[in-house]
């Protein structure tokens, strides 16, 4: 379990509605507050949950992003995307 | 002296409160919880030890105890926004919780503690259905079964045995029930989830195998089968089986008096009563 910064960011997304609004408005600037690797940053902005899972992010936390519609994730595209790197 | 009087295994699927609110008391989930509620009320427990896997809501990766006990006058929640669950205040049997922790530490379990905490759906969904008045004080025993590396099955079984001994050593007269919360095969959000779904039972064969062990009271067979790899193949939430295994440790090789599989959900409803 590496990827602590991604886990921490998802935790904040779950708890902080204002942070979610900022992410909707300007995801690129907003996620800069977190020390993500380049791969993590690119995958997150692309909603590439398969890549994030392959990088060590817990699937349970990744799935928590779906109800907020962030990073282009939907209940429809998540199942396919999570398998994209497995 | 105190004694364990019954045990219960229950799912905690977060969608169940909304589903039952929508479909009413005659739907299958409502009926199954009602059955368990009747058994729980019949044994009149003074306290309920809950083996539970927090979903990174009570604890997080900044500080994640593998095994811990909640020792406080009360707790509350849900702290994860479970749909259709009211906010509950739940009494904790602080004295018993402290006793279990102290006895566990004296007998080889380095149990962490939290003295101020809230709980998520994994505690409150079952309680919402089986003790809706929150009249039975709980003792939450947290087993970090969701974030790998997870504890070993035999370690959790031994923890259950130690909880049973601790209860027996309590000087007060007290009737203690035990609950295991969680699924047996479940994946949420990883590639093991069923195709086209975010979450679901990923390994129904494993669920059936485990339920066979439970039905027969074949504890040793279950402990041999429940390797960390095997549980991982049952989904990233498959480690919740450790809660059921700890429950078995606390009651021995008794066979359930009621066991209803929910194969499609990867879980089951179970009751162990030996008073009838």
Can you tell me about this structure?
The complex is a heterodimer of chains A (86) and B (276). Chain A has seven helices and no strands. With 86 residues, chain A is mostly helical. The model of chain A has no long low-confidence stretch (mean pLDDT 95). By secondary structure, chain B is of the alpha/beta class. Chain B has a single domain (2-273), classed as Protocatechuate 4,5-dioxygenase, Chain B, CATH 3.40.830. Helices cover 37% and strands 22% of the residues of chain B. Chain B has helices at 16-23, 28-43, 94-106, 121-130, 153-169, 204-216, 219-225, 228-233, 241-251, and strands at residues 2-10, 47-52, 67-70, 74-77, 88-91, 112-114, 138-143, 174-181, 187-188, 199-200, 258-262, 267-273. Chain B has an eight-stranded mixed β-sheet with strand order 6-3-7-2-8-1-12-11, with helices on both faces. In chain B, strands 4-5 form a two-stranded antiparallel sheet. Chain B has a two-stranded antiparallel ribbon with strand order 9-10. The relative contact order of chain B is 0.22. The interface between A and B is medium-sized, with 23 and 23 residues.
């Amino acid at each position: 379990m590496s990827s602590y910064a991604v886990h921490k960011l998802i935790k904040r997304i779950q708890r902080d509605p204002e942070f979610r609004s900022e992410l909707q408005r300007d995801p690129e600037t907003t996620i800069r507050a977190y020390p993500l690797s380049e791969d993590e940053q690119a995958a997150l902005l692309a909603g590439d949950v398969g890549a994030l899972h392959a990088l060590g992010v817990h699937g349970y936390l990744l799935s928590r992003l779906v109800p907020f519609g962030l990073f282009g994730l939907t209940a429809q595209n998540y199942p396919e995307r999570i398998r994209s790197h497995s | 002296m105190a004694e364990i009087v019954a045990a219960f295994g229950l799912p905690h699927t977060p969608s169940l409160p909304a589903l039952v609110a929508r479909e009413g008391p005659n739907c299958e989930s409502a009926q199954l919880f009602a059955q368990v509620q009747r058994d729980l009320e019949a044994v009149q427990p003074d306290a309920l030890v809950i083996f539970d896997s927090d979903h990174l809501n009570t604890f997080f990766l900044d500080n994640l105890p593998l095994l811990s006990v909640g020792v406080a006058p009360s707790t509350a929640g849900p702290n994860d926004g479970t749909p259709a669950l009211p906010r509950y205040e739940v009494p904790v049997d602080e004295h018993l919780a402290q006793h279990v922790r102290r006895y566990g530490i004296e007998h080889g379990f380095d149990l962490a503690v939290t003295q101020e905490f809230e709980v998520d759906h994994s505690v409150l969904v079952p309680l919402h259905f089986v003790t809706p008045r929150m009249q039975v004080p709980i003792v939450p025993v947290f087993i970090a079964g969701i974030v790998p590396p997870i504890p070993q099955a035999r370690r959790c079984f031994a923890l259950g045995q130690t909880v049973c001994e601790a209860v027996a050593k309590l000087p007060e007269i007290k009737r203690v029930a035990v609950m295991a919360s969680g699924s047996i095969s479940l994946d949420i959000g990883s590639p093991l989830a069923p195709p086209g779904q975010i979450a679901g039972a990923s390994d129904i064969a494993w669920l059936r195998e485990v339920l066979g062990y439970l039905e027969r009271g074949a504890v040793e067979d279950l402990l041999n089968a429940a390797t960390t790899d095997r549980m991982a193949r049952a989904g990233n939430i498959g480690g919740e089986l450790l809660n059921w295994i700890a429950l078995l440790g606390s009651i021995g090789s008794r066979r359930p008096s009621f066991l209803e599989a929910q194969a499609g959900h990867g879980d089951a409803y179970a009751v162990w009563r030996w008073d009838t």
